[in-house]
Amino acid sequence: MAGTYFSRHGDPVRGLAAYEDALSELTELGASAYARLCANIIAQTTAELERAHASDARGTLTAQQLRVAELVAEGYTSVEIAQILHVSSKTVDFHVGNIVRRLGVGSRREIARRLRPRAR
């Protein structure tokens, strides 16, 4: 029940973890039918999460990373972003490095491209 609640109304990653815990417990108890049901739900939830993350670069970032990425996309430097967010420029650079890794890009310019896909 917790997995369903979190998947639908909260954090789907937390819901997925709840289903994975339930799958382990059901398997240990020998409840194979329920274990298969949990395994199917895990597969569906995982596929949905992967689709969401692949289609929306924003979905792969934390709230703070997203704020930094948006400011990078607007053309602000690390020093300017640090002043806006009231953090050090090293913190901004740390976030930019994580953003680059999470989005699989190589530069600040590519961050902007990933956050603002071109209209078709």
UniProtKB/TrEMBL annotation:
Pfam families referenced in this protein's UniProt entry, alphabetically: GerE (PF00196)
Q: Does the keyword Transcription regulation apply?
A: yes
> Which Gene3D superfamilies does UniProt cross-reference here?
Winged helix-like DNA-binding domain superfamily/Winged helix DNA-binding domain
Top-level lineage group: Bacteria
**UniProt KW keywords:** DNA-binding, Transcription, Transcription regulation
Q: Which PROSITE patterns match?
A: HTH_LUXR_1, HTH_LUXR_2
Which part of the chain is the HTH luxR-type domain? 54-119
**PANTHER family in alphabetical order:** DNA-BINDING TRANSCRIPTIONAL ACTIVATOR DEVR_DOSR
Supply the name of the protein: Helix-turn-helix transcriptional regulator
